Amino acid sequence: MAGPWGRTRDGGVVSMVLTFRLHPGHYAIAVLRADEPVPGWPGGDFMAIVRTAAELTIVSDEARVPPDVRQQRGLRCIEIEGSFALNSVGIVAAATRPIAEAGISLFAFSTWSADCLLISDIDLNGAVRALRTVGHIVR
What we know:
CATH class: Alpha Beta
Largest sheet: 8 strands, mixed
Number of strands: 10
CATH topology: VC0802-like
Oligomer: single chain
């Protein structure tokens, strides 16, 4: 089949076959008040900072997040490999649907050229299994 279409092991059609890369680190999602300045502690080779009218959310290496900051720790990152045009449809849905159907919670976010899923370390094996079951590749 041409394009990102493929089949599951049982012969069912999967909307897209995606390849994921597991980042080696452990991450935390921290939340601060919307009016707080961006602190100096976020860092590492992978982080995200997003401000809305309601809050300032920071994804960072968990070792860099101070203990007194409201946070969820013990997260692993699975990144969809490849770069997709901003008008691509269904990429994140194809990645998150099997994980949701497995009853696993996730935190999804995107950059200009990357789509990432943060999953609790205790749920990582189940999430990887769910992705592989529908034909996706996890490295």
